[in-house]
Amino acid sequence: MDDLVFRGARVVDGTGAAPYTADVAVTDGKITEVGTAGAARRVIDADGALLTPGFVDIHTHYDGQATWDPVLAPSAWHGVTTAVMGNCGVGFAPAAPDRHDWLIGLMEGVEDIPGSALSEGISWEWETFPEFLDALDRRSYAMDLGTQVPHGAVRAYVMGGRGARNEPATPGDIAAMKAIVKQGVAAGALGFSTSRTLTHKAIDGEYVPGTFAAEDELFGIGEALAELGRGVYELAPAGAAGEDVNAPRGEIAWMRRLSRATGRPVSFALLQIDAVPDLWRELLELSVDADARLFPQVASRPFGMLISLESLHAFGDRPSYREIALLPREERVRRMRDPGVRARILAEPPAEEDVLSAMVRGFPDRLYPLAERNCDYEPEPGTSVAARARAAGRDPMELLYDLLLEDDGRNMLMMPLLNYADGSLDPQREMLTHPRAVLGLGDGGAHCGFICDASLPTTMLAHWARDRWRGEKLPLEHVVRMMTRDTARLYGLTDRGVIAPGMKADLNLVDFDNVALHRPEMAHDLPAGGRRLLQRADGYLGTFVSGVQTFADGEHTGELPGSLVRGGAA
């Protein structure tokens, strides 16, 4: 008798095969049967609901959160059963005892995770990277969790202040960094990560250590992966966010040589940049090389900022708003609705111009309200604040002011900065269908104040496989494969990502017709009352990790069957 049987499920098995109806049986955390199953201790009448492998999210930043939070929301709310953290060269190991505050400042600056939350939440049970893995291994989670060795932490550990200031590494420094990375990957890290984009800075304004690393350093560290024969080399490349449109081609060139030299896969962030809106297509083609293994990470929707009273908005630097900025949201809304206060905030110049507030004011044609449910991440240009204001004969900032106050100040607008140069996701669809592209860039656990993209898997299901009307959809089986088998295999996790006998029973039972994203909301539930944006979803009937149900109808069951995944063990 099996432990669990899903009876009559519509199976989308992760291989890219068309959906089919079958029973799926599970015993001792593994799938035992796909077809016609017998009796079981627990039977779930799937009644045609989708049954997919659990989603494998390869781009998260739960490095701090994993030390205090076993649930790992919001990713866990969106069908993720395995997450990979330690991306973009930032993390918390290795950690010299006198470098804790500096590492927190690095993560706070690069990934917008409140430093106060990290200071209060992290218990610092480690110094070396293997000790960090052991600390994670002592914990249980609602999902499995893997990590990578981050360049920033390694460089600062080996070189101290010289490393933090991005001074050139000596041959001795490179040898020491290689040894630490090799030790970490041998102990179970899934790879190594670095950052070269000028948009990534620590809280003190310094660039991430390794941003300007020379090839001898980049290739010297890569030798650690070559010698072990495992691990992914992940990076945020120079020019990824459009800060230098001439850099990406050169980045592809050295990444190709690195992959050839090490024999290891290299995965890098790829986004559409407004200034060169077709460059992504050239970079995709350059990544195809018979002798190199380059895998561009692409997203399923625009990348930008969420605009609201509780994140950032156009009026944060106005003197009259600053007088009430610290009031509770409900009281702030009441005051902002006062005609006198409204007139003053709209009319007065900034007290001291804030860069982000000025950016919001400067691009009303890039501001799109998000619905409370079924958020549309491919809005028509005619629905922007600027277009609506023109149609109504109003000032765009007056309209934005009023929109921010809707739903008692919980309303939220999307401001796409990347991946939306043409006001369409047609380029994104082309990226998502490229044979070398992998789904990533959700940044779960990071950018807490103005981004919430950990919900990318739900966008894949709801928008790309079902609802898209402004262009071609994507086949459901393609969408599921990208989130399961493809991401799992990139990181060598060959025991998951496919529904087949012998595979790990990480599964999602989904009411496909009712999958929907709710509008993001601001919560203050991090340690020290730190804030973060969270986004719920409908349609996930159940999520299972190793055959144990972790979520039922979007709520945590209290079960924590997840654990650290060590590379080489799959």
Automatic annotation (TrEMBL):
Q: Do you know which Gene3D superfamilies this protein is assigned to?
A: Metal-dependent hydrolases, Urease, subunit C, domain 1
Q: What Pfam families does the record tag this protein with? A: Amidohydro_3
Q: Name one GO cellular component term.
A: cytosol
Q: Where is the Amidohydrolase domain?
A: 42-549
Q: Which InterPro entries match?
A: Amidohydro_3, Metal-dep_hydrolase_composite, Metal_Hydrolase, Metallo-dep_Hydrolases_sf
Q: Which CDD domains match?
A: D-aminoacylase
Superkingdom classification of source: Bacteria
List GO molecular-function terms, semicolon-separated.
hydrolase activity, acting on carbon-nitrogen (but not peptide) bonds, in cyclic amides
Annotated PANTHER family: COLLAPSIN RESPONSE MEDIATOR PROTEIN, HYDRANTOINASE/DIHYDROPYRIMIDINASE FAMILY MEMBER
Identify this protein by name.
N-acyl-D-aspartate/D-glutamate deacylase
